[in-house]
UniProtKB/TrEMBL annotation:
One of its GO terms (molecular function) is O-methyltransferase activity. Belongs to the class I-like SAM-binding methyltransferase superfamily. Cation-independent O-methyltransferase family. PANTHER family: O-METHYLTRANSFERASE (PTHR11746). PROSITE patterns: SAM_OMT_II. Pfam families: Dimerisation (PF08100), Methyltransf_2 (PF00891). Residues 22-104 form the O-methyltransferase dimerisation domain. The active site is at H258. The keyword tRNA processing does not apply. This is O-methyltransferase domain-containing protein. GO terms for biological process: methylation. The keyword Hydrolase does not apply.
Length: 352
């Protein structure tokens, strides 16, 4: 009986593998079709319509060829990105789901710009050189594909720079809201806050609006802050965080430090230590903390982000709590608090 059970388990595992391998053979199809849906504006059209739309209504609105659009919709319905609902007794419409609502371009929880960034030819090309990166310590996959690092490329290509800023703004709208709702006390007593690598200022504008007593400083590379939308209560400063950080009660980072290796992070954090008050100043870091936690439904995102860092940056990586303690300690911070929020990232408070 024992042998029969073992053979049965092996057969089940083989059958599961036989099915699962096709997800890797054609894994690119899912992201390509989702990207297509965003570019066509399917979710936007249904949202604007206010109710499920028939294939005929969608093809007219989107100016698409009906059989081809139907094949796209059939695929997306299978993966529960959209759903079918009766419109009349004789017709079926396509409706939004919580997932497709995140594909609406200007939705409150939209991730459309993030998907468009990561599925762009510029960001896909480096993945073909990932194995070479693992085998030696040469150029990053991004440099191999484009001849320069991601930041130099963005500076010379305003369109790609804008796509990066819009993608980061997508996440900021979700993560900052989770921070405000879950840990508002993090900003108690802070009269001035410098957002280091603040991009187009989405995160900082949300914080200043929520905590109006706080003066915000959006600090990023000159070409980034030059095109950032101007918001009352925020000062815009261009510069290099490796050289100097504007003075404030606290320094704020969101998905910035994971772009750099330990020595670079230590250098950046030392500049922040110089910029904040010695007695009450602190650094607030919004980043993933990799830990083996079976209860964390978003743990897999941190692991995927770590692969993204390997493909798209020179030396960036996601960090465990032990690794965060190391870089912060080497930079002169003696005490840290880590607080989970309802997002991919956690909140790390570091004090001198």
């Amino acid at each position: 009986m024992g042998d029969i059970k073992v053979r049965g388990k092996k057969e089940d595992e083989d059958e599961k593998a036989e099915v699962e391998i096709w997800n890797y053979v054609f894994g690119y199809a899912k992201i390509a079709v989702v990207k297509c849906a965003i570019e066509l504006g399917i979710a936007d059209a249904i949202d604007k319509h206010g109710s499920p739309m028939t294939l005929s209504q969608l093809t007219t609105t989107l100016k698409c060829e009906p059989p081809r659009l139907y094949r796209i919709l059939r695929f997306l319905v299978h993966y529960q990105i959209f759903k079918e609902e009766p419109v009349t007794q004789d017709s079926i419409g396509f409706a939004l789901t919580p997932l497709s609502r995140r594909l609406i371009r200007h939705g409150e929880r939209s991730m459309a710009a993030f998907i468009l960034l990561e599925s762009s030819p510029v960001m896909l090309a480096p993945w073909h050189s990932l194995s070479a990166r693992v085998l030696d310590s040469g150029n990053s996959p991004f440099e191999t594909a484009h001849g320069k690092d991601v930041w130099s490329y963005a500076e010379e290509n305003p369109g790609h720079s804008k796509l990066i800023d819009e993608a980061m703004a997508c996440d900021a709208r979700v993560a900052v809201r989770a921070l405000i709702e879950g840990c508002p006390q993090v900003f108690d007593g802070i009269k001035s806050l410098v957002d280091v690598g603040g991009g187009n200022g989405t995160a900082l504008s949300m914080l200043v609006k929520e905590f109006p007593w706080m003066h915000g400083i959006n600090f990023d590379l000159p070409h980034v802050v030059a095109v950032a939308p101007k918001v009352d209560g925020i000062e815009y400063v261009g510069g290099d965080m490796f050289e100097c950080v504007p003075r404030a009660d606290a320094a704020f980072f969101m998905w910035v430090l994971h772009d750099w290796d330990d020595e670079e992070c230590i250098q950046i954090l030392k500049k922040c230590r110089e910029a904040i008050p010695q007695d009450k100043g602190k650094v607030i870091i919004v980043e993933s903390v990799l830990e083996e936690d079976e209860n964390d439904k978003l743990e897999f995102v941190g692991l995927m982000l770590d692969m993204v860092m390997m493909a798209h940056t020179n030396k960036g990586k996601e960090r465990t709590l032990k690794e965060w303690k190391y870089v912060l300690g080497e930079a002169g911070f003696t005490r840290i608090n880590v607080k989970p929020i309802h997002a991919v990232q956690s909140i790390i408070e570091a004090y001198i």
